[in-house]
Amino acid sequence: MAAHEGFQPVKSAGRTLEVLEALAATPDRRSLGELARVLQIPKSSLHGILRTMAHRGWVETDPTGTRFGLGVRALQVGAAYLAADNAVSLLDGVLDALAGQFGETVHLGRLDGPHVVYLAKRESVHPLRLYSAIGRHLPAHATALGKALLAEHPDDTVDQLLSWPLRRMTRRTITDPAALHAALAEVRAQGWAVDREENTEGIVCLAMAMPLRRPAADAISLSVPATRIDATGEARMVEALRAAADQVAAARGLIAH
Protein backbone atom coordinates (compact mmCIF):
# COMPACT_ATOMS: atom_id res chain seq x y z
CA MET A 1 0.00 0.00 0.00
CA ALA A 2 1.34 3.44 -0.90
CA ALA A 3 2.22 5.73 1.98
CA HIS A 4 -0.11 8.69 2.42
CA GLU A 5 1.25 12.14 3.23
CA GLY A 6 0.86 12.86 6.91
CA PHE A 7 0.08 9.24 7.81
CA GLN A 8 1.17 8.30 11.31
CA PRO A 9 1.31 4.53 11.90
CA VAL A 10 -0.01 3.12 15.17
CA LYS A 11 3.06 1.85 17.00
CA SER A 12 1.39 -1.07 18.80
CA ALA A 13 -0.26 -2.30 15.59
CA GLY A 14 3.03 -1.98 13.74
CA ARG A 15 4.86 -4.04 16.36
CA THR A 16 2.22 -6.77 16.24
CA LEU A 17 2.53 -7.01 12.48
CA GLU A 18 6.33 -7.06 12.73
CA VAL A 19 6.08 -10.05 15.07
CA LEU A 20 3.84 -11.90 12.60
CA GLU A 21 6.21 -11.16 9.72
CA ALA A 22 9.25 -12.30 11.73
CA LEU A 23 7.56 -15.57 12.69
CA ALA A 24 6.48 -16.15 9.08
CA ALA A 25 10.03 -15.64 7.81
CA THR A 26 11.27 -18.99 9.14
CA PRO A 27 9.71 -22.40 9.83
CA ASP A 28 11.61 -22.62 13.12
CA ARG A 29 10.16 -21.37 16.37
CA ARG A 30 11.99 -18.36 17.78
CA SER A 31 12.85 -17.40 21.35
CA LEU A 32 11.81 -14.20 23.06
CA GLY A 33 15.42 -13.00 23.11
CA GLU A 34 15.93 -13.73 19.42
CA LEU A 35 12.75 -11.90 18.43
CA ALA A 36 13.65 -8.96 20.65
CA ARG A 37 17.05 -8.65 18.95
CA VAL A 38 15.67 -8.99 15.42
CA LEU A 39 12.77 -6.58 15.95
CA GLN A 40 14.55 -4.25 18.39
CA ILE A 41 11.58 -4.37 20.76
CA PRO A 42 12.17 -4.44 24.55
CA LYS A 43 11.62 -7.92 25.96
CA SER A 44 8.98 -6.68 28.42
CA SER A 45 6.88 -5.12 25.65
CA LEU A 46 7.42 -8.05 23.30
CA HIS A 47 6.42 -10.58 25.94
CA GLY A 48 3.08 -8.80 26.39
CA ILE A 49 2.49 -8.75 22.62
CA LEU A 50 3.29 -12.46 22.32
CA ARG A 51 1.04 -13.42 25.22
CA THR A 52 -1.84 -11.46 23.71
CA MET A 53 -1.30 -13.02 20.30
CA ALA A 54 -1.07 -16.51 21.84
CA HIS A 55 -4.33 -15.92 23.71
CA ARG A 56 -6.02 -15.09 20.37
CA GLY A 57 -4.49 -18.08 18.54
CA TRP A 58 -2.10 -16.08 16.33
CA VAL A 59 0.97 -17.45 18.10
CA GLU A 60 1.77 -20.88 19.51
CA THR A 61 4.58 -21.94 21.85
CA ASP A 62 6.63 -25.10 22.16
CA PRO A 63 6.13 -27.39 25.21
CA THR A 64 8.60 -25.32 27.24
CA GLY A 65 6.69 -22.12 26.56
CA THR A 66 9.91 -20.35 25.56
CA ARG A 67 9.86 -20.57 21.76
CA PHE A 68 7.20 -19.02 19.55
CA GLY A 69 5.73 -19.77 16.12
CA LEU A 70 2.67 -18.88 14.07
CA GLY A 71 -0.69 -20.11 15.34
CA VAL A 72 -3.71 -21.53 13.57
CA ARG A 73 -5.33 -18.08 13.11
CA ALA A 74 -2.56 -17.19 10.67
CA LEU A 75 -3.45 -20.24 8.59
CA GLN A 76 -7.13 -19.33 8.61
CA VAL A 77 -6.45 -15.81 7.39
CA GLY A 78 -4.05 -17.01 4.69
CA ALA A 79 -6.56 -19.57 3.47
CA ALA A 80 -9.28 -16.91 3.40
CA TYR A 81 -7.03 -14.68 1.28
CA LEU A 82 -6.48 -17.43 -1.28
CA ALA A 83 -10.16 -18.41 -1.31
CA ALA A 84 -11.16 -14.81 -2.09
CA ASP A 85 -8.53 -14.26 -4.79
CA ASN A 86 -10.10 -14.44 -8.27
CA ALA A 87 -6.73 -14.87 -9.98
CA VAL A 88 -5.90 -17.99 -7.97
CA SER A 89 -9.24 -19.64 -8.76
CA LEU A 90 -9.03 -18.68 -12.44
CA LEU A 91 -5.54 -20.14 -12.81
CA ASP A 92 -6.25 -23.43 -11.01
CA GLY A 93 -7.09 -25.18 -14.27
CA VAL A 94 -3.97 -23.84 -15.96
CA LEU A 95 -1.79 -25.20 -13.15
CA ASP A 96 -3.52 -28.59 -13.37
CA ALA A 97 -3.02 -28.76 -17.13
CA LEU A 98 0.69 -27.92 -16.96
CA ALA A 99 1.27 -30.40 -14.15
CA GLY A 100 -0.56 -33.10 -16.09
CA GLN A 101 1.38 -32.39 -19.28
CA PHE A 102 4.87 -32.41 -17.80
CA GLY A 103 4.66 -34.10 -14.39
CA GLU A 104 6.91 -31.38 -12.96
CA THR A 105 6.44 -28.85 -10.17
CA VAL A 106 4.23 -25.92 -11.16
CA HIS A 107 3.99 -22.68 -9.18
CA LEU A 108 1.78 -19.61 -9.27
CA GLY A 109 3.67 -16.64 -7.84
CA ARG A 110 2.89 -13.00 -7.13
CA LEU A 111 5.29 -10.09 -6.84
CA ASP A 112 5.43 -8.71 -3.29
CA GLY A 113 7.93 -5.85 -3.19
CA PRO A 114 11.44 -7.32 -3.60
CA HIS A 115 10.09 -10.87 -3.26
CA VAL A 116 7.87 -13.31 -5.06
CA VAL A 117 5.42 -15.32 -2.96
CA TYR A 118 3.99 -18.73 -3.89
CA LEU A 119 0.18 -18.61 -4.03
CA ALA A 120 -0.43 -22.11 -5.40
CA LYS A 121 1.56 -25.15 -6.52
CA ARG A 122 1.26 -28.56 -8.08
CA GLU A 123 3.76 -31.22 -7.00
CA SER A 124 6.04 -33.09 -9.36
CA VAL A 125 5.32 -36.78 -9.81
CA HIS A 126 9.05 -37.54 -9.53
CA PRO A 127 10.91 -38.36 -6.29
CA LEU A 128 13.64 -35.84 -7.21
CA ARG A 129 11.92 -32.43 -7.15
CA LEU A 130 12.05 -28.90 -5.79
CA TYR A 131 11.01 -28.34 -2.20
CA SER A 132 8.57 -25.45 -1.87
CA ALA A 133 5.54 -24.35 0.12
CA ILE A 134 2.57 -22.06 -0.47
CA GLY A 135 3.24 -18.72 1.20
CA ARG A 136 7.02 -18.99 0.85
CA HIS A 137 8.79 -15.75 -0.10
CA LEU A 138 11.88 -15.81 -2.34
CA PRO A 139 14.05 -12.96 -3.67
CA ALA A 140 12.47 -11.88 -6.95
CA HIS A 141 15.81 -11.27 -8.68
CA ALA A 142 16.86 -14.90 -8.13
CA THR A 143 13.76 -16.66 -9.49
CA ALA A 144 12.18 -17.08 -12.91
CA LEU A 145 8.82 -16.07 -11.45
CA GLY A 146 10.30 -12.90 -10.00
CA LYS A 147 12.21 -11.96 -13.14
CA ALA A 148 9.12 -12.51 -15.30
CA LEU A 149 7.23 -10.04 -13.09
CA LEU A 150 10.06 -7.55 -12.57
CA ALA A 151 10.36 -7.34 -16.36
CA GLU A 152 6.84 -5.91 -16.42
CA HIS A 153 8.31 -2.71 -14.95
CA PRO A 154 10.90 -0.22 -16.23
CA ASP A 155 14.40 -0.46 -14.77
CA ASP A 156 14.00 2.55 -12.48
CA THR A 157 10.92 0.97 -10.89
CA VAL A 158 12.77 -2.34 -10.56
CA ASP A 159 15.58 -0.57 -8.73
CA GLN A 160 13.04 0.91 -6.29
CA LEU A 161 11.34 -2.45 -5.72
CA LEU A 162 14.45 -4.47 -4.93
CA SER A 163 16.49 -4.52 -1.73
CA TRP A 164 20.11 -3.63 -2.45
CA PRO A 165 22.66 -5.14 -2.37
CA LEU A 166 21.01 -8.16 -3.94
CA ARG A 167 21.16 -11.38 -1.93
CA ARG A 168 23.25 -14.20 -3.43
CA MET A 169 21.36 -17.50 -3.19
CA THR A 170 23.79 -19.65 -5.23
CA ARG A 171 26.99 -19.07 -7.18
CA ARG A 172 24.82 -18.41 -10.26
CA THR A 173 22.60 -15.72 -8.72
CA ILE A 174 22.66 -12.41 -10.59
CA THR A 175 23.59 -9.68 -8.11
CA ASP A 176 25.14 -7.02 -10.39
CA PRO A 177 22.61 -4.28 -11.29
CA ALA A 178 23.74 -4.00 -14.92
CA ALA A 179 23.61 -7.77 -15.38
CA LEU A 180 20.13 -7.92 -13.87
CA HIS A 181 18.89 -5.11 -16.12
CA ALA A 182 20.28 -6.98 -19.12
CA ALA A 183 18.55 -10.19 -18.02
CA LEU A 184 15.23 -8.36 -17.63
CA ALA A 185 15.64 -6.79 -21.08
CA GLU A 186 16.01 -10.31 -22.47
CA VAL A 187 12.84 -11.39 -20.64
CA ARG A 188 10.94 -8.48 -22.20
CA ALA A 189 12.24 -9.36 -25.65
CA GLN A 190 11.49 -13.09 -25.54
CA GLY A 191 8.42 -13.01 -23.29
CA TRP A 192 9.58 -15.53 -20.70
CA ALA A 193 12.12 -15.84 -17.89
CA VAL A 194 14.54 -18.55 -16.85
CA ASP A 195 16.38 -19.24 -13.60
CA ARG A 196 19.29 -21.62 -14.21
CA GLU A 197 20.18 -22.72 -10.68
CA GLU A 198 20.09 -19.09 -9.52
CA ASN A 199 17.84 -19.75 -6.54
CA THR A 200 18.42 -23.47 -5.85
CA GLU A 201 21.40 -25.55 -6.93
CA GLY A 202 20.40 -28.20 -9.46
CA ILE A 203 16.99 -26.66 -10.31
CA VAL A 204 16.03 -24.88 -13.55
CA CYS A 205 12.82 -22.84 -13.64
CA LEU A 206 10.96 -21.36 -16.62
CA ALA A 207 8.27 -18.74 -16.02
CA MET A 208 5.89 -16.42 -17.83
CA ALA A 209 3.77 -13.54 -16.57
CA MET A 210 0.02 -14.10 -16.81
CA PRO A 211 -1.81 -11.18 -18.49
CA LEU A 212 -4.66 -10.72 -16.03
CA ARG A 213 -3.78 -7.06 -15.58
CA ARG A 214 -1.08 -4.60 -16.62
CA PRO A 215 1.53 -4.63 -15.33
CA ALA A 216 1.14 -8.33 -14.58
CA ALA A 217 1.25 -9.24 -10.89
CA ASP A 218 1.13 -13.02 -11.26
CA ALA A 219 3.30 -15.54 -13.10
CA ILE A 220 3.39 -19.31 -13.57
CA SER A 221 6.56 -21.40 -13.55
CA LEU A 222 7.72 -24.94 -14.22
CA SER A 223 10.58 -26.15 -12.01
CA VAL A 224 12.73 -29.07 -13.14
CA PRO A 225 15.97 -30.68 -11.92
CA ALA A 226 18.74 -29.60 -14.31
CA THR A 227 19.54 -33.26 -15.02
CA ARG A 228 16.00 -33.80 -16.35
CA ILE A 229 15.73 -31.00 -18.89
CA ASP A 230 17.37 -30.35 -22.27
CA ALA A 231 16.88 -27.72 -24.98
CA THR A 232 13.99 -29.62 -26.55
CA GLY A 233 12.19 -30.02 -23.23
CA GLU A 234 12.77 -26.37 -22.41
CA ALA A 235 11.25 -25.30 -25.74
CA ARG A 236 8.18 -27.48 -25.11
CA MET A 237 7.67 -25.92 -21.69
CA VAL A 238 7.99 -22.38 -23.04
CA GLU A 239 5.38 -23.13 -25.71
CA ALA A 240 3.06 -24.58 -23.06
CA LEU A 241 3.49 -21.45 -20.94
CA ARG A 242 2.71 -19.30 -24.00
CA ALA A 243 -0.46 -21.29 -24.62
CA ALA A 244 -1.41 -20.83 -20.95
CA ALA A 245 -0.85 -17.07 -21.18
CA ASP A 246 -3.03 -16.93 -24.32
CA GLN A 247 -5.75 -18.84 -22.49
CA VAL A 248 -5.56 -16.46 -19.54
CA ALA A 249 -5.64 -13.40 -21.82
CA ALA A 250 -8.90 -14.67 -23.32
CA ALA A 251 -10.43 -14.95 -19.84
CA ARG A 252 -8.94 -11.86 -18.18
CA GLY A 253 -12.24 -9.98 -18.23
CA LEU A 254 -13.14 -12.00 -15.13
CA ILE A 255 -10.50 -10.15 -13.10
CA ALA A 256 -11.06 -6.59 -11.88
CA HIS A 257 -8.42 -4.17 -13.20
Brief account:
The chain is of the alpha+beta class and 257 residues long. It has helices spanning 11-24, 32-39, 43-55, 72-84, 86-102, 144-150, 155-161, 177-190, 231-251, and strands at residues 30-31, 59-61, 67-70, 105-112, 115-122, 137-139, 193-196, 203-209, 218-225. Helix 5 runs antiparallel to helix 9.
Describe this entry's structure for a reader.
The structure is a single chain. This protein is α+β, with helices and mostly antiparallel strands. It has helices spanning 11-24, 32-39, 43-55, 72-84, 86-102, 144-150, 155-161, 177-190, 231-251; strands at residues 30-31, 59-61, 67-70, 105-112, 115-122, 137-139, 193-196, 203-209, 218-225.
How do the helices and strands line up, and which of them pair or pack?
Elements: H1 11-24, E1 30-31, H2 32-39, H3 43-55, E2 59-61, E3 67-70, H4 72-84, H5 86-102, E4 105-112, E5 115-122, E6 137-139, H6 144-150, H7 155-161, H8 177-190, E7 193-196, E8 203-209, E9 218-225, H9 231-251
Antiparallel strand pairs: 1-3, 2-3, 4-5, 4-9, 5-6, 7-8, 8-9
Helix pairs in contact: 5-9
The named CATH superfamily of the largest domain = GAF domain
Do you know the CATH topology of the largest domain? Answer: Beta-Lactamase
The spatial strand order of the largest sheet comes to 6-5-4-9-8-7
The end-to-end distance, rounded to whole angstroms, is: 16 Å
Report low-confidence residues grouped into runs of 5 or more. Answer: none
- Tell me the helix content: 40-55%
Average pLDDT number: 92
Order of helices and strands: HEHHEEHHEEEHHHEEEH
The number of helical runs is: 9
The main sheet comes to: 6 strands, antiparallel
Got a strand count?
9
- Report the C-alpha radius of gyration, rounded: 20 Å
Shape call: globular
Give the class-level CATH name of the largest domain: Alpha Beta
CATH architecture of the largest domain: 2-Layer Sandwich
- SS-derived structural category: alpha+beta
Strand content: 15-25%
- Structurally, the number of domains stands at 2
